[in-house]
Amino acid sequence: MTAFGQLQVIGLREWIALPQLGMVGLRAKVDTGASTSALHASDIVPYERDGTRWVRFTAHFGTLVQRRHRCDAPVVSVKTIKSSNGHAQQRYVIRTAMALGDRVWPIEFTLTCRRNMRYRVLIGSKALVEGQFLVNPALSYVQDKPVLPVLESLPGAP
């Protein structure tokens, strides 16, 4: 069963895409204990474009083969995030479309170094609520990988 009423069931790990950033085929871990989602990023450089704050960064994804992708996105805010070990860190927050299964919706990501983590992307509870997902932690990769026709229908998709 992959649906429960209006809610779609997802597992602890799922394939996602970030089409507005030009990234497809990312493995993400669901973290219901985290409010905001997180994306592994380095070389983070803030700048201004047409009077708006933006950030340029290198996104890292892939587990066996490390892939990098240079991205630009408007800054939504800067948040202080406290990690599970109690360490507080200032992070840039961006908002971009995420595709999971057959759903595509905008979510917020904090940009942070996840170099020592197995998963380069965490999906937090706010994204799960907005996407109307139910998590079964006993399962993984329940939903199909996002397909190109769904991604191409997005405004600003590559």
Automatic annotation (TrEMBL):
The keyword Ribosomal protein appears for this protein: no
InterPro entries xrefs: Asp_endopeptidase, Peptidase_aspartic_dom_sf
Boundaries of every Retropepsin-like aspartic endopeptidase domain copy: 9-146
Domain of life of the native organism: Bacteria
GO terms of biological process kind: proteolysis
Keyword Transit peptide on entry: no
Molecular function terms from GO: peptidase activity
PANTHER family: ATP-DEPENDENT ZINC PROTEASE DOMAIN-CONTAINING PROTEIN-RELATED, ZN_PROTEASE DOMAIN-CONTAINING PROTEIN
Name of the molecule in the record: ATP-dependent zinc protease
